From TrEMBL, chain A:
GO terms for cellular component: cytosol; eukaryotic translation initiation factor 2B complex. This is Translation initiation factor eIF2B subunit epsilon. Component of the translation initiation factor 2B (eIF2B) complex which is a heterodecamer of two sets of five different subunits: alpha, beta, gamma, delta and epsilon. Subunits alpha, beta and delta comprise a regulatory subcomplex and subunits epsilon and gamma comprise a catalytic subcomplex. Within the complex, the hexameric regulatory complex resides at the center, with the two heterodimeric catalytic subcomplexes bound on opposite sides. Belongs to the eIF-2B gamma/epsilon subunits family. Residues 393-416 are annotated as: Disordered. InterPro entries: ARM-type_fold, eIF-2B_epsilon_N, eIF2B_epsilon, Nucleotide-diphossugar_trans, W2_domain, W2_eIF2B_epsilon. It comes from the Eukaryota. CDD domains: eIF-2B_epsilon_N, W2_eIF2B_epsilon. Signal peptide: none annotated. Keywords: Cytoplasm, Initiation factor, Protein biosynthesis. Residues 404-416 have a biased composition (Acidic residues).
From TrEMBL, chain B:
Component of the translation initiation factor 2B (eIF2B) complex which is a heterodecamer of two sets of five different subunits: alpha, beta, gamma, delta and epsilon. Subunits alpha, beta and delta comprise a regulatory subcomplex and subunits epsilon and gamma comprise a catalytic subcomplex. Within the complex, the hexameric regulatory complex resides at the center, with the two heterodimeric catalytic subcomplexes bound on opposite sides. It is found in: Cytoplasm, Cytosol. Pfam families: IF-2B. Belongs to the eIF-2B alpha/beta/delta subunits family. This is Translation initiation factor eIF2B subunit beta. The keyword Transcription does not apply. It comes from Papilio xuthus.
């Protein structure tokens, strides 16, 4: 290792978010051909007409970074190709910065990436860690120097987190998980880092953190830019604690086990004239796009990545258009419009707050036949066009209340997508928000990874318990420990326990399923009574039965009998059954017409009438 | 010479690299101030010229061949070489112009160097005195440099001399502008200036012995203005710092306005920092003389109609803090420059002395070749 290399600032860019917040575009886009398009991948997703990766590289280059490691988990070759073409075009960063593309298909989380980097020994010392979704104009080199100074004062300093302070009403705060941060006022050492739920208005502050520090700062209006300055100790920490999956895991883990891990965290708030934000979902995508258009991120701009060749014509009201675009004389650009290359805007079109971005030859065409009869207005929309088709596509006004809606009326092979946004920020969670708590009723088909594993584990435990006739108390313990390992909510546990009971492998091979089910229920009676106690847990139980009967072949047509068994063992009561049955009707579940179920409820009705009569 | 011949030359890779580096230095803020930018432009051009001086072996062969065959070959060859060099420099100028439309000093330097190369062109030598824009300067200074046009080994030498001269001029420009300070600022006068600028600070400091009083109006960069006020006050100038909003109210008492402009334009207009127009408008209303400090490198042969050079948006931070809740909704218009019409300016102070706005066109024709106005 040469001594001159020691001073080179290294940066690690993680090219994937490991979330599917952008799933509509990054999933349905065809993998083929277009390199500069969004493809399947976030890094080439363009923001204000420029691929995300170009912003990141540009800001790293301007920020004094000498060597960059791009870690790709998907689509590595495309990134590599993109880097190569940028180098050939002599992008400004290519002169001062060495870019290395690392590919690995096995990494599923950010933690895996860090462990991989640690194993490969790519990083020499202090480094900058950022995601590909960070848009910033900070000087990384000076920030890293500051972090080194902090490390001199506190040998245990592992990471400095970078935040941008904004107003509390700012949409960047509303559309991310709110962050609450408490820190030592003198040293900027982070004491509490909490990503709270938006509906939770209370904050809990341990007395300890006030008493043991002469001054404590509390922040509630910070935007996490997904940028961190790391000490060499960060990578080994990730390697040692293989349960760290995300940066938040790392932050929380370090804060909870500060003494054990012998490391601490610091934070830094950027100066007023520096900008930093991370694109985490479509809402933030839109905000950051406007910020770029409004020149908040100077020197990064819509010119980024094109060697400052000023290919845009600046018109009034923050309207920009590429030189090669064609505008009809009668079209009106109201404000904040970006029109990409080779785009044609026809007569009588009115465009407001829209980025029409098409870097492909034939481009997007907003045809006049739509606009003539409708006088339609595009409001706050992002139009992406991936196929070279000249078909007129009808863009119908589509701003729905809930935030996002898809319209695709193009005829034939067109792969055009239109994502509309409601311009007014609604308080309701948008469907791309990263919260998974939205699954209130039935968990729909793509069950999250963790819960799948949890279900499998519960099935295993129960099967073993049933075969070896173990004590149910032990099984409850086992289930509970898996529950904590995968961070499963209580109502989900209820659901999955029932689900698991009805999916034990013995059932699959059994000749008389019902007898076995009866036997199983009898055996697991203590477990059932442990979990299924309250009204809501009974509903969970019934939903589990519903899903099991839909998904498992061996239970086909036997929903009524299973309910009958549950009813007889007093696991479920009559009121809940009736309520659930009404729910089924409302949801038009496929179960509703099953004869066994219908018969069971008829029987239930009769039974209750009889009992009433006898009274 | 045709004003713009075709799409321009392709630059070689090394040249491109130099330009990219230069441009990104300026964009990232490593190079600041029009004087520094002008200096680095000159260095860039010098490098490119000396690179192009070592032509390939093939070119040498051609040269030898042609010199043998043609009796007056040297003149033709020189001509060829010169026009090649011209188009290279022009291509560089175009690149810079597209990348940095707001930095007028950079393209001015390109025009100056182009002029020098054209002056050395042998075919042009006979025509001297013919063109309408022929300068006094050239008539006085130029003739002896053309004494030996046949000396084809030293083709580059005059250009290099000129670049050295140009550099000397840039170096001394601040000094020569400030040297005139005492002629314009008199004792007991109340002078107003707007915003912070290095040149204005030097100028006002040079006038310090006159015991004048200074009103310094804060520009959008408040911190810089305060720092400048503190430095001037330390240098013995009686400084009062005022808000830019108060300028109109104070103007009736002011004797003179001193402004450092970003560029002097063809028609005698000027580009000042954002907010300068309000100051000159007030001065115009009260008929207060406005002195615009414009060293020669700030003289641009552009006219007010070439808007895309002037409508450069600045970072929105300069107008509104991001911390405010409006930042996400508001459309911030933060221009970098203000256009100051010619009738608001009394005198441009250049290296060569004061000149009225109506004389700027003459200065321009002395500095640049008319065919280079449009790069």
């Amino acid at each position: 290792m040469e001594p001159s290399q020691e001073n080179v600032v290294q940066a690690v860019v993680i090219m994937d978010l490991f979330k599917n917040n952008f799933s509509p575009i990054n999933k349905t886009k065809p993998m083929a051909k277009h390199i500069s398009r969004t493809c399947n991948f976030r890094a080439l997703l363009s923001v204000a007409g420029v691929p995300l990766i170009d912003y990141v590289l540009e800001s790293l280059g301007l920020g004094g970074v000498g060597e960059t490691i791009l870690f790709c988990c998907q689509d590595g070759p495309k990134i590599k190709e993109h880097i190569k073409t940028s180098k050939e075009k002599k992008s400004p960063w290519s002169l001062t910065m060495d870019v290395q593309v690392i590919m690995s298909d096995t990494c599923q989380t950010m933690g895996d990436v860090m462990r991989e980097i640690d194993a490969a020994g790519l990083v020499r010392g202090y480094f900058v860690l950022l995601g590909v979704n960070s848009i910033t104009n900070v000087n990384f080199a000076t920030l890293l120097e500051e972090h080194k100074l902090t490390c001199k004062k506190d040998k245990e300093a592992a990471m400095t987190l970078i935040y941008k302070r904004v107003s509390w009403e700012h949409p960047l705060i509303k559309n991310n998980k709110p962050l609450f941060l408490a820190a030592d006022g003198n040293t900027n050492k982070v004491l509490i880092h909490e990503k709270t739920r938006s509906n939770n208005n209370t904050l809990q502050l341990p007395l300890d953190c006030i008493l043991s520090h002469s001054e404590a700062k509390l922040h509630h209006n910070l935007v996490d830019a997904n940028i961190a300055l790391c000490s060499p100790s960060v990578l080994p920490l990730f390697a040692d604690n293989f349960d760290f999956q995300t940066r938040d895991d790392f932050v929380n883990g370090v804060l909870i086990n500060e003494e054990i891990l012998a490391s601490s965290l610091y934070y830094k708030i950027l100066k007023e004239n520096q900008y930093a934000a991370a694109i985490t979902n479509w809402k933030t995508y839109q905000i950051v796009s406007w910020d770029i258009l409004h020149n908040w991120v100077y020197p990064l701009s819509i010119e980024t990545g094109s060697f400052f060749q000023n290919n845009y014509i600046f018109m009034e009201n923050h309207n920009f258009r590429k030189i090669t675009s064609k505008l009809s004389r009668s079209c009106t650009l109201v404000e904040d419009v970006l029109i990409g290359a080779d785009t044609e805007i026809y007569d009588n079109t009115t465009i407001t707050k829209t980025m029409i971005d098409s870097l492909i030859e034939n481009g997007t065409i907003i045809a006049e036949n739509v606009n003539k009869n409708e006088g339609s207005k595009l409001k706050g929309a992002v139009i992406e066009c991936s196929e070279q088709d000249k078909n007129d596509k009808n863009l119908v006004k589509s701003t729905s209340e809930s935030g996002t809606e898809w319209e695709n009326e193009s005829d034939g092979s067109g792969d055009d997508e239109f994502v509309g946004f409601d311009k007014v920020w609604s308080d309701s969670e948008s469907c791309y928000s990263s919260d998974s708590s939205a699954q209130s009723s039935l968990p729909e088909s793509p069950v999250p990874e963790d819960t799948n594993i949890f279900l499998q584990e519960v099935i295993d435990s129960l099967a073993r318990g049933y075969e070896e006739k173990l004590k149910c108390d032990y099984l409850i313990l086992e289930i509970n420990s898996s529950r904590y390992a995968y961070n499963i909510q209580l109502h989900e546990v209820n659901f999955f326990v029932i689900r698991a009971m009805l999916s034990i492998p013995i059932l699959v091979d059994s000749k008389s399923v019902l007898v076995t089910v009866k036997d199983i229920l009898k055996f697991f009676r203590p477990i059932l009574s442990n979990y299924i106690k309250t009204k809501s847990s009974i509903m969970d139980c019934l939903r589990a039965v519903e899903e099991s009967c839909i998904k498992c072949d061996w239970l086909e047509g036997k929903a009524g009998q299973i309910l009958h068994l549950l009813y007889e063992t007093d696991v479920v009561d009559e009121d809940s059954l009736v309520e659930w049955y009404d729910d089924l009707k409302d949801n038009e579940s496929p179960l509703i017409n099953q004869t066994s179920l219908v018969k069971f409820f008829e029987w239930l009705q009769e039974a209750s009438e009889e009992s009433e009569e006898s009274e | 010479m045709p004003p713009s011949e075709g799409p321009g030359k392709e630059l070689d890779a090394k040249c491109e690299e130099l330009i990219v580096k230069y441009v990104s230095d300026i964009r990232s803020g490593k190079l600041e101030g029009s004087l520094n930018i002008a200096m680095s432009t000159v260095s860039l051009l010098e490098q490119i010229i000396s690179d192009s001086q070592n032509p390939t072996a093939l070119w040498m062969d051609v040269q030898i061949l042609v010199t043998r065959n043609l009796k007056n070959g040297s003149t033709d060859l020189d001509d060829y070489w010169h026009s090649e060099l011209c188009s290279t420099i022009r291509a560089v100028g175009r690149q810079i112009l597209r990348a940095l439309p707001q930095e007028l000093a950079a393209t001015n330097m390109v025009r100056r160097v182009l002029r020098a190369i054209r002056d050395e062109q042998p075919s042009n030598a006979n025509q001297s005195g013919e063109g309408a824009g022929e300068s006094l300067q050239r008539l006085v200074l130029a003739p002896h440099s053309r004494a030996a046009p046949a000396d084809n080994k030293d083709l580059i030498e005059p250009v290099r001399d000129f670049i050295a001269e140009l550099r000397g001029e840039l170096d001394s420009s601040t000094q020569s502008v400030c040297g005139q300070a005492r002629e314009h600022v008199h004792a007991d006068e109340l002078v107003l200036t707007y915003g912070a600028s290095r040149l204005a600070e030097r100028f006002l400091r040079a006038a310090a012995p006159r015991r004048y009083r200074l009103l310094l109006a804060e520009s959008s960069d408040v911190k810089e203005s305060h720092a400048m006020a503190a430095r001037l006050s330390a240098a013995g100038v009686n400084v009062t710092l005022v808000s830019a909003a108060a300028v109109t109210a104070l103007m009736s008492r002011v004797n003179k306005v001193v402004l450092c402009v970003r560029a002097a334009l063809g028609g005698g207009a000027a580009l000042g920092g954002a907010g300068a127009h309000a100051v000159t408008l007030a001065a115009h209303h009260y008929s207060v003389p406005v002195l615009a400090l414009a060293p020669l490198y700030k003289l641009s042969p552009l006219h007010a109609c070439e808007q895309h050079h002037f409508n450069v948006p600045d970072s929105a931070h300069s107008a509104l803090p991001y911390l405010s809740s409006e930042s996400a909704l508001a459309r911030v218009v933060a221009p970098r420059y203000d256009f100051i019409p010619p009738n608001h300016i009394t005198l441009f102070i250049t290296n060569l002395g004061g000149s009225s706005p109506s004389y700027v066109y003459r200065l321009l024709s002395e500095l640049y070749d008319p065919s280079d106005y449009q790069l």
